[in-house]
Amino acid sequence: MTTIARTLLRRGMFGCVSMNEWKEERSHKTRRVNLKAADFMLRSKEEAVAKHPRCLRILLLASAYNGLTQAVHRRLRSLGHHVSVEFAAQEQVVRDAIASFGPDLIVCPFLKEFVPADIFRAHKVLILHPGIIGDRGPSSIDWAILQGQREWGVVVVEGAEEYDAGAVWASRTFQVPADATKSRMYGDLVSSAALSAIEEAVGHFGTDFVPESVDFSGSWVRGRKLPLMKQADCAIDWEKDGTEAILRNVRARDGQPGLLQRFPAASASAYLYGAHREDGLVGQPFQMLATRNGAVCFGTTDGAVWITHARASKLTRDAARACVPHGDKLYKLPAAVVLGEQLGLPLPKELPVGLDCQVPGSTFQDVAYQKRGNVGFVLFQFYNGAMATEDCRRLQRCLQHAKAQADTQAIVIAGGAVLHGGAGYFSNGIHLNAIDVARDPAQEGWENINAIDDVVLEILDSPQHLTVACVCGNAGAGGAMLPLAADRVVAGERVVFNPHYATMGLYGSEYWTRSLPKRVGNAMADELTTRCLPLNAREAEELGMVDAAVPGPMSAALDRASSDARRMAASAEVLLGKKAQLRKQEEAEKPWHVYREEELREMRANFFDDSLGFAACRRAFVGKERADAAPTRIAGHRR
To answer: Model confidence over 55-74: pLDDT tens digits?
Structure first.
């Protein structure tokens, strides 16, 4: 029997001899992890200093509580610092936060606004800039990709009169892959470097460290001041630009704001996102050649490219009202929806792709199956981690295909940076944009949650296979609960989990009421789903929510999941027997379908009766409404 099999039998997911033993083991673990519950709360200064003599009161000042801000928040908390968060949109809110919290240090991991001079003169303010030393300006990553930079970095600077021009407290560099997109570069390479640089910079505070002022005219300074990138700087000339140039231009604007493209036939424009090479199709430049799962393929001078998503730009209200069913909601949606339904362009035929994993970089594919020896791999990578109803159905079919393979004993279910490279979300659950633009949002939400529940059930109900979930990107709401259905969960160390639904006005489903308490205990499950705070992969590992947090790039997590699955498969007969025994005991106490029925009863009320305010929360989210102040769950200075 392999080591991992013995571990699973002794301590793991399905190895207890009886349900009572499983409960007893979990109760001991629950008592241990509940002692850590206070670590998810803001401690008083006295408590924090007593536990960590180098504890600092740090105010995180950010333009949004995005993935990077969350990761920095959790990292600084794990280092023992007393951290509170505030948004930078309103100057008076910032001043009030500083006055009430009394920070030793202000750290800005994601900042679009200028910090007033009197603040950075009175307080030490450290600002993360996503560029190399000397680089200044608001479009650093955009220019780096458009100019084909092969090395980029981050720098932590002091607040100064000029944007990004303060003395340097820490810096990091990294290699930029040729196929990097703006959103993936920020979410993976920049985030990883930022965590390291911010940790170093915070460590310097209160020591005799002297930050380095930069002579921007020095020959050793590669970075330069560059302006805000305009759409004209990256516009595509379809009659001249080849595939590589088009890919680079779209990738430089991916995420936000997108690459603006005029469609003369519709007398309208749309922002383009998600560009992928296509090696098997040819056509006239800018000719629409095919569609696939919402993506649209365009011909180029030397090949073709897929565009997966788009956002209509400045449709008149009258024209928008004529569109069915999306009205004037100009959200980021599958390109075929925007071009076909909002702009009214005739679309080419659907060109499906099979489940077999294609050669990376040769076409667009967001769900695929691979077989490596006696282990099957279900790979998926959905744009921004949003899983629409049909996305869930395709993923379900792939899981069914994997489970039908009699010559495999284990299945790895891997999501995130697994098909297109770079960074990607594992899953953020149901597709809020698709729900909001639907003719009947309540019905679409209902169909979407049932579809993702079916995906989870396919993972749960796998009696002939051992399952390993591999989380290769951030995961939120139902996307954070989905992998917990697997027998084993592996995550990249930099993954941030948001295992809660309440901030979106939802009760939640995905069998979370079964899977989360099973892993972390009832008390901690309640803590995670009601306090609505993020946790990083290391914290999730300590709580038992995941089994392994793997350092290094996301590919290392997939390698670890693969090796775990192979070792589990080597002891498949014993482990599958124990798995069947535990399921029988578990369902005798409470059948799985009861968890789903109870959850969906609440979700039906959320969708059709708006019992928890889902409609307003959803509209605020998809409409990107900015809050003037951080919510109290992260702004401890207002509690």
So the answer is: 999 999 999 999 999 999 99
pLDDT at 54: 75
Do 431 and 452 contact (CB within 8 A), yes or no?
no
Residue 438 and residue 574 in one domain: yes
Q: Is the pLDDT of residue 13 over 70?
A: no
Q: Is the pLDDT of residue 199 over 80?
A: yes
Number of compact structural domains in the chain: 3
**H-type alpha helices, 469-550:** 478-481, 512-520, 522-531, 537-543
Going from the C-alpha of 49 to that of each of 4, 95, 184, 204, 339, the distances in angstroms are 40, 25, 37, 18, 57
Q: Are 484 and 509 in contact (CB under 8 A)?
A: no
SS3 177: coil
Average pLDDT estimate for 452-478:
98
pLDDT of the residue at 53: 54
Asked if the model's pLDDT at residue 314 lies above 80, the reply is no
Contact assessment for residue 85 and residue 634, using Cβ atoms and an 8 Å cutoff: yes
Give pLDDT tens digits for 99-111: 999 999 999 999 9
Is the pLDDT reported for residue 600 higher than 70?
Answer: yes
Confidence of residue 618 (pLDDT cuts 50, 70, 90): very high
101 Rama sector, left if φ>0, alpha if ψ -120 to 50, beta otherwise: alpha
The alpha carbons of the chain give a radius of gyration, in whole angstroms, of 25
How many residues belong to the chain? 639
Q: Alpha carbon of 493 to those of 236, 550, 628: distances in Å?
A: 38, 5, 32
Tell me the sheet residues that pair with 333. Answer: 310
Q: State CA 347 to chain mean position distance.
A: 31
The answer to whether the bond into 463 is cis (omega within 30° of 0) is: no
For residue 601, give both structure tokens. Answer: 């009863």
| pLDDT value of position 135 | 95
Strand partners, 59: 84, 106
Q: Beta partners for 560?
A: none
To 10 degrees, the CA torsion angle through 59, 64, 68, 74?
Answer: 40
Structure-derived torsion over alpha carbons of residues 552, 555, 557, 560, reported in degrees to the nearest 10 = -110
Same domain for 454 and 510, yes or no, is yes
Tell whether 202 and 246 lie within a shared domain.
no
Please indicate, yes or no, whether residues 518 and 595 belong to a single structural domain of this protein. yes
CA atoms of 427 and 477, how far apart (whole Å): 8
Give the Å distances, CA to CA, from 74 to 40, 68, 481, 530: 9, 10, 20, 18
Among 343, 340, 392, 346, which Cα is nearest to 366's?
392
Q: What is the pTM of this model?
A: 0.91
Tens of pLDDT along 257-271? 999 999 999 999 999
| Domain containing residue 46 | 39-227
